[in-house]
Amino acid sequence: MALKSFLRTTVYHTEKLTQRLRFASQTAGMPILLGISFPKSGTHLLDQILLGFSNVAPYAKRLHSFYAEYEGESGKKRDPQQALNWLDSLQPRDVASAHLFARPEAVARVCLSSSEGSPKFVPYFIFRDPRDVVVSHVFYVTDMEARHVHHDYYQSLPDFNARLKVSILGRPDVDIEFPNIAARFEPYLGWLDHPEVLTIHFEDLIHARAATLTLIMDHLLNRLPLPASRQLILNSLEASINPTKSPTFRSGKTGEWKKHFTAEHKKIFKEVAGDLLVKLSYEKDNNW
């Protein structure tokens, strides 16, 4: 494992140096591109798009690293200091990805300008209709990730409906932290309140991709002008999308929850997360 990590780091820094030489005239003041995502909301898709900037600017051609607030197999919640240490480890021209809570200390780092007055990070936050999130979560935990901390429990449940109910309501009766869907989203809500962070509805990358890619491009260009033409940049972002490596994006569908929600699912979802749908602009009220 140590050798694998060493080799990966060596390759990363070699590629980054190559990019710096390739775009030698553009290396000054380059911020870190940071993709923040709520789980099961298009993380891989946003990663691909941000890495597309490497075709027109001296950005890394692969992710520096990925950070999650919970350990994958154990489900243990990480200490908040670990997130800050991870953010501090990132360097100019890195592209990084995270399921990152909007704690005040993290927000301060992500939204802070460098000593030269330019932004240290250019951050993006992608999320998805929470109803589709819980459906995706069932498929992921039950069928796709056998090492997931809740896999055996989901497998023990009698059917999809029972599993979906758990994904909505959580598991408050166990030591492993897994609250209801609204409580799981709550630590991320702070990212919506900062103009330094571009918020992206996953659905807009399906139904209004050109306009959304333009917003993603302009969010960087407003902070760091690039010599490449706007069309070339947009083409680079579009070309970087690979649906086969983005499970959420593969089907290209939205609103799949309508196929799976029963009347009971709708009722309990409205009870625990109806306000969340309104806040995220997926519904105007609870009459859905």
Notes on the structure:
By secondary structure, this protein is of the alpha/beta class. It folds into two domains: 2-23 and 32-128 and 184-243, Rossmann fold (3-Layer(aba) Sandwich), CATH 3.40.50; 131-182 and 251-279, no CATH class. It has helices at residues 2-22, 43-51, 80-89, 104-110, 130-144, 151-156, 160-169, 181-185, 204-207, 209-221, 230-239, 247-250, 257-260, 263-279, and strands at 32-37, 66-68, 95-99, 121-127, 198-201. A five-stranded parallel β-sheet has the order 2-3-1-4-5, covered by helices on one side. It is globular and about 60 Å long. The model has no long low-confidence stretch (mean pLDDT 91).
Question: How many structural domains in the coordinates?
Answer: 2
Looking at the overall shape, the CATH architecture of the largest domain is 3-Layer(aba) Sandwich
- CATH domain class name of the largest domain: Alpha Beta
**CATH third-tier fold name of the largest domain:** Rossmann fold
Name the helicity range.
Answer: 40-55%
What is the distance, rounded to the nearest whole angstrom, between the alpha carbons of the first and last residues?
50 Å
Q: What summary fits the major beta sheet?
A: 5 strands, parallel
Low-confidence stretches: none
Beta-strand level of the residues, as a percent range?
A: 5-15%
Helical run tally: 14
Quaternary state of the chains: single chain
Shape: globular
- Major β-sheet strand ordering: 2-3-1-4-5
Work out the radius of gyration.
20 Å
Structural class: alpha/beta
